[in-house]
Design the sequence.
């Protein structure tokens, strides 16, 4: 299976700078999930595959028949190819309610590769449409929006960055926040791994008190 590499944050920021990014009005944020970054491919013929951001198969995980049925049941157009970016909650979580859940947070291709249009906000709107505009939180801790039992969608905000960072600080499944520039666009065809300046990661503190942003 050929991979379409997803963009990755080039830089990291400390939590103390979150208010400054919020005041700029140029950024939105999502939870940073503690799992394995993956891309999910839905082929024009209806085959579903999953790879890590490095182009390898996820360790100790394969899509189940239920996962495949769920992905094919999304709001997608028959005969078109899709690449969705997300996080696989896997061996890094000890909570059985979270294992093998896939949290989607961006769309890279929907029929065509989304090069330069739409911008980040447009892609997030498209992802919401693909997921059926979910509104209910998953039933355990409520860390994401439930699309199906096995597929979830990341929430997105542009207010109260500090509050969102403090949410679930003691929950293993959450590492912090990822900031995305609203007007940013895909400007790389994803043929190899790449980092972008329009994404920033802000990680929660380690138990020892030191930040590893």
Sequence:
């Amino acid at each position: 299976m050929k991979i379409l590499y997803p963009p990755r944050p080039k830089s990291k920021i400390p939590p103390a700078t979150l208010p400054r990014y919020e005041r700029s009005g140029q950024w939105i944020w999502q939870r940073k999930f503690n799992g394995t970054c993956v891309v999910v491919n839905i082929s024009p013929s209806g085959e579903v595959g999953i790879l890590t951001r490095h182009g390898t198969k996820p360790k100790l995980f394969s899509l189940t028949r239920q996962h495949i049925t769920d992905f094919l049941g999304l709001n997608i157009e028959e005969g078109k190819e899709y690449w969705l970016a997300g996080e696989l909650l896997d061996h890094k979580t000890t909570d059985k309610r979270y294992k093998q859940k896939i949290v989607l947070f961006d769309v890279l291709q929907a029929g065509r590769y989304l090069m330069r249009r739409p911008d980040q906000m447009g892609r997030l709107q498209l992802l919401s449409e693909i997921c059926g505009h979910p509104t209910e939180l998953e039933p355990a801790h409520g860390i994401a929006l439930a699309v199906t039992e096995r597929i979830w969608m990341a929430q997105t905000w542009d207010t109260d960055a500090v509050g969102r960072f403090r949410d679930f600080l003691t929950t293993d499944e959450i590492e912090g926040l990822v900031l995305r520039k609203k007007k940013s666009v895909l400007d790389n065809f994803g043929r190899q791994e790449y980092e972008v300046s329009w994404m920033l990661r802000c990680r929660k503190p380690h138990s020892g008190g030191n930040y590893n942003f």
Observations:
- The longest helix spans residues 120-130.
- The chain is about 15% helix and 30% strand.
- The first strand starts at residue 7 and ends at 12.
- The CA atoms of residues 55 and 163 lie 34 Å apart.
